[in-house]
Every structure is written in C-alpha cells, then in structure tokens.
Amino acid sequence: MATSPASTETGLKERFFRYFQHEVTALQEQMERLNQMSISGGERTDAVDHCLAGINRLSHEVKDASNYIPAYDQRTYSEAIKALSEKLQNTRNAFNPPKKFQFKSRKTVASAISVNNAPVPTSDTANTNSSSAPTPLANPPPKEEKQQQQQQQEAPADNVEEDGIDGIKADNMGIRRPSFSHATKITISNHSSLHIIVPPSASHATSSGTLSHLRGCVVDLSAATTTEAPSAAFAALYLKHIKDSLIICGQIAGAIHITDVSNSIIVTSCRQFRMHDSKNVEVYLHSASRPIFEDCEGLRFAPLPDVYMTAETRQAANQWDQIDDFKWLKAEPSPHFTLLPEAQRVQGEVWTEKVGSGRTSLDDTLKAVRVQ
Q1: Are residues 166 and 84 in the same domain?
Q2: How far is CA 146 from CA 93, 138, 153, in A?
Q3: How many domains does the chain contain in total?
Q4: pLDDT score, position 309
Q5: pLDDT digits (tens, 9 = 90+) for 188-240
Q6: Is the residue at 254 inside a domain?
Q7: Strand intervals (E) in the chain
C-alpha cells in the first residue's frame, strides 16, 4: 500500500521535531559544561566552536525544512535557535567578560558632548591627560591580571599527558597505557599507528574526552569508564578526523559527537549518538535514544558486544537500530546505512581474546576486526 503524501509530510515534521529537540538538549548540555573545561590545549575554544557550528547547522536545517514545516513552527524553531545563541554568548561572557572601554573625565569640566561627537586625536594633538584619551588596554585590571596568571600556572598540569603519549614507554606488545594522572579530561590527538589502552586509574579524567587526528590506531577507553566510581562515564565524547582505526569509547553518560571518521570501527554506549560527515564506519552501539546522522555514507550498525555491556546497560532499552538519517527525506529507507548481519559482525571471542586481552599487537588487532 502506497504511503500518502500527507502521512509522509507528517512523518517528516515529527522526525524533524524529534531531531531538533535532541540537538537543542545536546547543545544546552555542552554550554553548561563550558565553564568546567580547561583553557589549556584549546579545549574550551574547541567546545565553543562546536556549539557555534551546531547552532549554525540547526539554523540552516530549519531553512532547508521550510517546504514541509508550517510557518508557525518555523518561527518557534527560529526563536529557540536565537535563545541558544544568546545563552552561548552569556556563557562566554561569564568566563570571559568583555573589556570595558572607559574614558577619563575631568571633574572640573562638565561636558555635554557625546563620545561619538568627540574629535579623534591625531599624533600632534594626542595627550594622555586629555579627556578623550582612552584608558590603555594593554595592561588588564589587577583582578583580570591575577586570573590570567593563575590560568597560565594551571595550564601545564592539564596538558602534561596530552603531549606525552609518544613519550610513554610501550610494553612488549607495543601498547601504551597513559594514566592522565594530572588531567581532568582525556585528550588524544595527532597520532598514527599507536595502540593505546587507557587504564582504570584514569577514571578521574573522564569529565570530557576528545580524540582527533588519528590514523591507523587502536584506542580503548573502556576500562576507565566502567569502574565502580559513579562519575567514571564520560560526560561527553568527541571523535573527529579519524581514519583506519578502532575506537572503543566505553560508557558515555551524555552524547557522543563524531565528525569526519572513515574506514574505522567505533564501539560505544551512550545516551545520544550524533555523527556527521563520515563514511565507511562500523558502529557497535548501545544508545538510549534514536541515533542520528547526516552527510554520511556506508555506515553499518550493530548492537554493543556483550563484553562491553554493564549491569546498567543490560537493563536499559537499546535503540541501536532505530536510526535517523536526517538528510534522507524520502519515505523509503535511507541507502546511507545498513544493519550489520550477525554473520558479518566481529565475533565475541575476537573482542575478548584479541581486542580486550591486551596481548595482541596493533596490526593483529586491526586485522582481527577487519580494519586492515
């Protein structure tokens, strides 16, 4: 029986509404965590840029959906986007207040001339005692200067492990096990052909995580997120610019954001799954909500392997196969993803005996999961 145009349009509106709600919630959660992020290593800047990009993307998507979303709903969505932009700006101002531009005034002269009408001083007439001379901005006020000094002193502590993974001695299988002992976050970037297993002792550093610019790597974060500590799960995890790799993310209490990943395998348990601009990726997933992707192709989804399940995830509903391709607006199924048949999935003994044992080399691990 053919689907009527009216029912198709209703389905699109409902799907957009659900997607929009998920994205707004995720962006709000990211903004609330901004003031907890370190300024060293560009973590806070990256997070702000991610929020800006998300807001901009939502704005464009509302415009793209205008052919099937009623005008009233479009206004509602636009107002929500405006509120997000204002919230982000207010959040940024809270931890980085704009500097005030002040003019010195002479108490003995009452001037009725506005600042806009004041003459611009030239090199011949400029005078530091003039009422039109601005307060120098090169030297911040004492309070701001003290804050900057504290931030500079704190920066190296957060950045020790980020730049030190190459220097960590590998075991006889070539595996590095960074402890992130001085960090509150896990950042692994700019590596190729490395096998990294983050140990349980790094569970204190899972306030957030970023993995970026990796090629031909195996990264296993699961042990650090499955300890008995209630805060062990990542609040959020960001994967970007990754190729030919196996990434085992562990437990994520919030959202995982994946951008520009190709020819790789991702294993994760999360509350929200978001993927953009990726291709040829196998995803072994436990998701508490419907996974969403856009501008991707060649995705293959399977349920989370049993070895990475926890008591909590075993009891929770898994929507790993309720996938929304937001750029596919037709009634028929999206051609950009498939559900991986059981016979084609990586088998349980591979996860336990090869990947999870810590006794298999990088090349053998990648071959076992068919990344190479």
Answers
A1: no
A2: 18, 15, 11
A3: 2
A4: 92
A5: 999 999 999 998 888 888 878 899 999 999 999 999 887 655 567 888 899 99
A6: yes
A7: 175-176, 186-192, 195-197, 209-215, 218-220, 237-243, 246-251, 255-270, 272-276, 279-287, 292-294, 297-303, 324-325, 337-339
**So what's the pLDDT on residue 151?**
41
Instruction: Please report how the helices 5-33 and 71-95 are oriented relative to each other, as an axis angle in degrees rounded to 10.
Output: 10
Q: How confident is the model at residue 242 (pLDDT cuts 50, 70, 90)?
A: very high
Question: Averaging pLDDT over each range in 86-100, 127-141, 242-256, which range is the top one?
Answer: 242-256
Here the CATH number for the domain that contains residue 33 is 1.20.58.1250
Half-sphere CA count of 185, side-chain side, radius 13 A: 27
Cβ atoms of 195 and 360 within 8 Å: the answer is no
**DSSP character for 136?**
P
User: So what's the pLDDT on residue 27?
Assistant: 86
Find the length of the chain: 372
In the DSSP assignment, the letter for residue 334 is P
CA distance 303 to 285: 5
Cα–Cα distance, 207 to 217 (Å, whole number): 23
Q: Is 241 exposed, middle or buried (0-12, 13-18, 19+ CB in 10 A)?
A: middle
Taking each helix axis as running N to C, give the angle between helix 5-33 and helix 43-64, from 0 to 180 degrees, rounded to the nearest 10.
Answer: 160
**Which residues span the domain enclosing 78?**
5-95
Last residue of a domain, one of 47, 70, 95: 95
What count of Cα atoms within 13 Å lies in the side-chain half-sphere of residue 101?
Answer: 4
CATH code of residue 257: 2.160.20.70
CB burial readout 306-317, b (16+ within 10 A) else e: eebbbeebeeee
Of 209 and 130, the one with more pLDDT: 209
The pLDDT value given to residue 359: 86
